[in-house]
């Protein structure tokens, strides 16, 4: 149990999309981690659209419900 608490704390520190002003559940942490990994995969794909300097990052496309737990 102690090791898992440390793992969740580490995830909170590494994922920039997690809200810092309120407590989040373990499930919400995992949802943000999944979304963040998806965003990183899209950014690393060859030919991926890049955000203009100072602009907003491109939105991830919505995956079919059968292919994803979460749909943005």
From TrEMBL:
Query: Cross-referenced InterPro entries, in alphabetical order?
Result: bHLH_dom (IPR011598), DNA-bd_prot-inh (IPR026052), HLH_DNA-bd_sf (IPR036638)
Residue limits of the BHLH domain? Answer: 1-40
Its transmembrane ranges are none
Specify where it is mainly localized: nucleus
Q: Which GO terms describe its molecular function?
A: protein dimerization activity
Signal peptide limits: none
GO terms, biological process: cell differentiation; circadian regulation of gene expression; negative regulation of transcription by RNA polymerase II
Which residue ranges are recorded for the region named Disordered? 48-72
What is the recorded name of this protein?
A: DNA-binding protein inhibitor ID-4
Q: From what organism does this protein derive?
A: Nothocercus nigrocapillus
| Taxonomic classification | Eukaryota, Metazoa, Chordata, Craniata, Vertebrata
